[in-house]
Amino acid sequence: VSGLRPEVERLSAYAVDQDASLVKLNQNEASDDVPPDAKEEVFERLRRASWNRYPSGGPGALEDMISAREGHPVGGILAGNGSNELIQTLLVAACDRGDRVVTARPTFSVYGRAAGLLSLPVDEVPLAEGFTAFDTDAVIERARGARMVILASPNNPTGTVLMEEEAGRLAYAVEGLLIIDEAYFEFSGRSLKGLIAEHGNVVVLRTLSKAWRLAGARLGYLMGREDLVRGLAKAKLPFSVGLFARTAAEIILGRRGELEETVRGTLEQRQRVFQALRGIPGISPVPSSANFILFRIEDRSASVFYEQLRARGVLVRVFDDPLLAGYLRVTIGKEAENDAFLEAVRVIACGSRS
Ligand code: PMP
After folding, report:
1. Beta strands 292-297; 283-285: pairing state
2. What's the CA gap between 1 and 148, in Å, rounded?
3. d(CA 137, CA 139)
4. What is the DSSP string of 318-329?
């Protein structure tokens, strides 16, 4: 016996290929690092900080900055060690043994993993045909009696956006909490946080790991009604956001330029990669509102295509889910990285150098 619960034993390791020598387009990270002068500012602040003291336990300067940016009361904001931590906090705080969680399929695997660890049954509602829309009616149907509905908009790995009208209908219909994960919102420009004012059951998740270039620092936050967030804060581990993450986040949030540059560049490149993929025989990209594109490979298995790309030095994301058997996901990178990816896809798909 391992001493661990069967729920843990059954989980596969959360393993992602992180070979830095490859063109790395598999984790939806920003392609540009934080600029050196911003890093210097962080170091400078860290030098002056007291490392022997616990970081802020409750809302501090970081939450004030987020509050001002978002126009959301500081009491309705909770920062976490990445949005992953907050997903777990939400589940722990809201769900009793046996409570049902509803999500979409395909979607971000951490929802199912975190729920599974708590032995919570997960209902996965397939996206509409072609992954271009949520099946909102089906989600509403399945949400009856469920404790939580969690949807990502834009959705990972499809880039699908939940329309405002659909989200509004969901917020009315869902009896439990409606969590909208907006990890990629900056690339779609559409937020559903406006629902919070009218619906006390809506929580919006954000992260600094994508458009803000801070995946390594680990900083996510959620927004909701103040009374709800006060409760959630009690379920989160104390001091889970460390001094480094707080400081890096404060500096980077104060620098609009980097964000705008990341988003502008990504949107231009997304358009270009999408058009190029569409022009390659046997490849069908799914329209995306995020910083990645899911694409279907018609004439061979995605895992074979993945290995062929890897052999050519390009790392993309391959999936276990049978629903995604014919699909790979590529993160939008820098122009040269995208060129390397597109050239490799052309060569593999066409069987010849172009
Ligand atoms: N939500 C979605 C939809 C994601 O794709 C990711 C990252 N892959 C996360 C949340 C987790 O982000 P963080 O780095 O903030 O934990």
Report:
1. antiparallel
2. 33
3. 5
4. E---GGGTTEEE
Q: State the distance from the centre of ligand 1 to the C-alpha of 183, rounded, in angstroms.
A: 6
Contacts of 190 (CB under 8 A, 6+ apart): 153, 161, 164, 289
- pLDDT of residue 257 exceeding 90: no
Calpha distance 83→69 (Å, rounded)? 18
pLDDT at residue 19, rounded to an integer: 85
CA of 178 to the centre of ligand 1 (A): 17
Cα 16 to averaged position of ligand 1 atoms, centre (Å): 14
Residues constituting the chain = 354
Decide if 86 contacts 114 (C-beta within 8 A).
no
Pocket around ligand 1: residues whose beta carbon is below 6 Å from it? 28, 82-84, 108, 152, 156, 181, 183, 207, 209, 215, 220
Angle at 60 between CA 54 and CA 64, to 5 degrees: 160
Distance from the CA of 84 to the center of ligand 1, in angstroms?
6
Q: Which of residues 19 and 116 earns the better pLDDT score?
A: 116
Mean per-residue pLDDT for 190-203? 97
Candidate from 55-59, 135-139, 166-170, 213-217 with smallest mean pLDDT: 55-59
Average pLDDT (166-182) is 96
Of 206, 205, 208, nearest in space to 249 by CA: 208
Q: Which amino acid is at 298?
A: E
Q: What is the mean pLDDT of residues 182-205?
A: 97
Cβ distance 171 to 199 under 8 Å? yes
- Shortest-distance Cα residue to atom 1 of ligand 1: 183
Closest CA to 204 of 329, 323, 301, 71: 71
Mean pLDDT over all residues of the chain? 95
Residue of 296, 345, 349 whose CA lies nearest to 319: 296
The DSSP secondary structure of 280-332, one letter per residue, reads STTEEEPP-SSSEEEEEESSS-HHHHHHHHHHTTEE-EE---GGGTTEEEEE-
Q: Which of 181, 186, 203, 212 to mutate to test the pocket of ligand 1 (most atoms within 8 A of CB)?
A: 181
